[in-house]
Amino acid sequence: PVQPNAGQCARYCTDASDFTLRPGSTYTYDYETTTVTTVQGGQEKTQIQITAQADIEVLSKCELSLRLRGVTLKLSDPESPDYLVSLRGAREFAKTIERNILRFSFQNGQVEHVCPSENAPTWVTNIQKGVLSAFQSFSVKPEWTTRTLETDVLGKCTAEYHSLGRNWQGTHTVRKLKDLSSCTERENYETYLQGSAYSQDFQTMSLPVVKGSQECEQVIGDNFLQTSTCNEKLIFRPFSNRGNGVVATVSQKLIYAATSERRFTGNDYRPTTEPLLYTHAKQEVSSAKIEEETEMVLRELCDAAKVDISISVPRKFSGLVYKMKKLSLRSLKSFYQKIDKICPQNTDKARKFFMDAIPLFASDARKFSTASEAHYFLESIDSGIHVDSHLIFSTDSYLPRSAMFNLTVDIFGKSCNLFQIDGRMEGLEHVVESFFGPGGYFPQKNIAKILREKRSVDNNKLNLIDSQFNQHYRNPHQPYGSLDVKVFGTSMWYEQFRSNEDGTPEINLLDIVTKLAEENDKEYSRSFMFLDTTFTVPMTSGLPLKIALNGTASVGLKIGGKFDVKSFEQVDVLGHIEPSGAVEISGLLTVDAGHFASSGMRIISTMHSSSVLDGKVQVRNGEVVKAQLNMPRDRIDVFNIQSKMYLVHGTEEREKAIDKREGTHLQSCTGRGISKVFGVKICSSLDLPPYRPNSPLQPLNGPAAFSLFIEKTDPTLKSYNFDAQWKNEMKKGGFVKHGVFSLNTPESRVDRDVKMELYVNEADHTATLKIKTPVKKFGVNAKLVDGESKKLDFSVNVDDKDYFSLQSELGIVNVKSSMYNVQSSLEVRIPSGRFMAATGTADIRLGQKYSGQLKIEDLTEKPILAKGNFEIGKKDRYDIEASLSSFPLDGTVKGYAQMGDNIASRFNAEYRILEGKMNKLSIVGKMRNLSAAALTKYSGSLNLQASVLPEWNTELVFETMKTTGHIENTVSVSLGDGARSRIHTIKLQEILRYEGSLSDNKVDGSIKLLYPEKNINYGLSVKHENTENSLKNTLEIQYAKNRQISTDVQLKKSTGNLLSVAGDVKLSYPGREAAVQAELAQNSNKEYRGTASCQWQTGRRVAAVLHYKDKCEGSRLKYEIDGNMNLPESSPITFATIVSYHRGQFAGSAEMSQGNDKYRAKADITAGNGLNHRMAGQLMIKNDVYGIDAAVNSIKDKVNGNVEVKMPNRQRATAKFEGRIGNGQF
């Protein structure tokens, strides 16, 4: 049953009274909350702290009010983030909070709703709700765990209450846990992303942007809250790595201080009620101030885009969008009329920025049908992507009728159109043919014919579809076309054309050609915001955590010149093109304390490019090409990308500087050669933060930057002039081709005149190349003779002097089927004479024999002669024989290899180095397959004999075998020849036997390494056996002769109803024997016996026995523990403990003895009704006895008590007291 309360914030009052507060009293608490925003895995951190005294006045059992006083606001010091400092404006912050009192309905520990005053700022009420969220609790019985749906400032969340029991003072401790990812009515989400909402049938929703949890511990005493301590952790999931990333932690403390009779709540009636949920509200700013700020932003934007799209334009444009969003329609019209005054020198661009910002206010989504689609969707994260496109032809035309491409992503429960381009055209066949048809401007290409061949018009299905089209669109004499480009659902560019009213095409080719021939300058610019999302989530403190993501792009293009084309053989092009663009993506994560201060961080990533291409091209008679590339700028920024991090402290944003002592910092430019030849240098720079394991992903791990630019090194460089000519003439039955290419930089003080000439005579197969530079002249001549044998003459001259010449000849004769004879020669000359001459022959019998020789003269003092012979015999036998004669190395090699199931080979070599002593080398190897049935077995050997280093003569023998339950491998290596050096033998053997399954098996294995010459005798053996109820394992390691380390492990457990487990572990090595034994046995349901011993050396042992009995009967509780311990060189120790409790009587005793020394302690406590309690205790240390008797009695309003302490030698101390209880005082 409940009691109705009209005219109060608490509309009713429940009869439940697990939590009771005395009406007419005010309970004061010390309150503190600190929010820390940090990049885990990094060093960046900001803090914001609020402290206050919270007064809770109890107007009635369920009608309470909250007042905060002594409010302080502190932020972390930007120089030392661990220290907190006061903030300018903190006094006004405190006054605003302190003058607003919040009444609330308190129903048995839960804050059902609150009643703020009419003019209370929303942010003040949210902070008060944070205090009340810590104040409210839930009744949990001792030793119980309860799950309940709880409403507080964090949202509607499932809370787990765990009782941690009561202490000796009677206070009850409760732990509360929340997974904030499952909370509802919590976050606020605002986005510009255009899209259509969709529903899903599966239960898993999108992964949250912020993952959070809360853990609180509350202490309840005297039926009201004593302390409440909460810790909340929020992780920003994007760019995090294994939990490292942007993390916000909130600590909140509410500690009871005192109770008083003072009152502060008036008698005002507050009809407005609202739940304890966080209230999301927008900040209101005066219209005049917004207009003033908007003008300033547009003025700065015009200055930034005066020459080109600078790197700061996207950020300033996004600022313009945010300001214009807050203007009314009337203010927008007024603002547009003032643009000429705001940007008098850049009016066109200013109006373009204004118009570009207008579409960004909309949020409608466009939907397009598709002809084909490819998509991928991942239900677990409720996100996906799909691409659709179509290209449709009509049977009346070889040109496509329409085309479309669309890229869409499914994210945040919406389908968002990222990019789309679609177009349509009809009746343009005659336009194409007027350019490329037989009577067109460029008839030699006849492109119309190519298109007709590529696209057949005979298609029955297309005929059927096309018959349904309107006749207006089927008329090929009425041209029509359109093209539309959209980004994020916003039309970025749209163009269309159609026929005139009389049916003639709107396209006039003569007008087009005439306009192209005229010199014109155009400038285009476009700015748009492709990402604008704000995500707000409340925290335990009542402060909001705001995450704002913004993406803005600005592109600009200056283009001018003329395009005069009379034919493909006569072209004049003059013009310039200056593209520039910038993209900025900004992320802001802050904790806001009203409009007074913010704490957090901002991350800005930008991309920028500004280039220029200026020049002219001339083509005459299809052969002469002249071009000029101008260099109007001293520097061209090809590409620049950078990521910066700012720490937000109050109203200040401080950039985190790049530490040149850490991370990667590279700068490089092209060398002096490029600079001298071209007068420019190409440079790049790279700055990356230091790598740390598990650090967050870029851009959270620190500032980074990359840039690529071109910069003049010759200030007088104005342009590059190119001149190219190509002629093709028929002479003496063949074509003679002549080409000339030249490059120079006029007006430059550096001579860069370069000229190249190429002559090619197809009749006599000759070619000549001449190159002239300011430094050198080069010439290249080549002649090719193609007959029965091929000959090549090649020469190079420098400054008209022979520098290098080469003559070569190659002849191949087919003697008969599959038999060839090859002869070749090569001669190289340099100015000092013949550098090298080489001749070679080869005889080839395909698949049987290959032989040949090579002779090289003049390269070394002694001619080089190499011979070789390779034969392929029967039964996979291969024979080889080779020789080499030269000054550095002389020698022969002879050998064979026999392949198959069994392998055998032998190679013998004789050689000498620098005409020294003749040496011998022999390699013999074999391998045999001895496998049969279930046995797999191989054996083999490898023998290496050398006359130079006989001590390294090597013989390797191996054997490997495997069968069911058995694996064995043996390897033996012998070094030395036994005559001039002692033979060293190394042997490695491995044996493994196994049987059974994983739960019931036996394993027996060993590894041995023997090296007698080095006194090495190593071994490892293991035996293992286990069943479901036992385990045995022995391990032995031999590290020298008669020197072993061994271990023995045995575990077992009983299979009966009573528990019985035992374990035995032994370790021994020379000079030490250690062992550990333990056993636990259950004698009955209430009796256990345990034994344990530890030996660390022979004769050095510790043993212990422990006996536990549970003698509880009904409400009588009684527990006994006794045991003994044996220590080396010491008397045994025995001990016993008894604890009992029944109906307010507690008794406990403990005793211990060692030899003649005895120790005893006992206590008896009786808890009566009211304040009637009695306690007696005794402590005996050896022969000294201490005692205490204490009692408290109360009769009506009279209380008396006495305490007596007994000391050894009959000494006593006695104390008594008396008192009265009345009017709530003692």
TrEMBL record:
The Vitellogenin domain covers which part of the protein?
A: 21-1088
Q: Name one Pfam family in it.
A: Vitellogenin_N
Its keywords, alphabetically, are: Disulfide bond, Glycoprotein, Signal, Storage protein
**Gene3D superfamilies membership:** Lipovitellin, beta-sheet shell regions, chain A, Lipovitellin-phosvitin complex, chain A, domain 4, Lipovitellin. Chain A, domain 3, Vitellinogen, superhelical
Q: Which GO terms describe its molecular function?
A: lipid transporter activity; nutrient reservoir activity
Give me the disulphide-bonded residues.
C157-C183
Q: Which PROSITE patterns match?
A: VITELLOGENIN
Q: Which InterPro entries match?
A: Lipid_transp_b-sht_shell (IPR015819), Lipovitellin_superhlx_dom (IPR011030), Vitellinogen_b-sht_N (IPR015816), Vitellinogen_open_b-sht (IPR015255), Vitellinogen_open_b-sht_sub1 (IPR015817), Vitellogenin/Apolipophorin (IPR050733), Vitellogenin_N (IPR001747)
The record's PANTHER family line, in alphabetical order, gives: VITELLOGENIN 1-RELATED (PTHR23345:SF15), VITELLOGENIN-RELATED (PTHR23345)
Q: What is this protein called?
A: Apolipophorin
Lineage in the entry? Eukaryota, Metazoa, Ecdysozoa, Arthropoda, Chelicerata
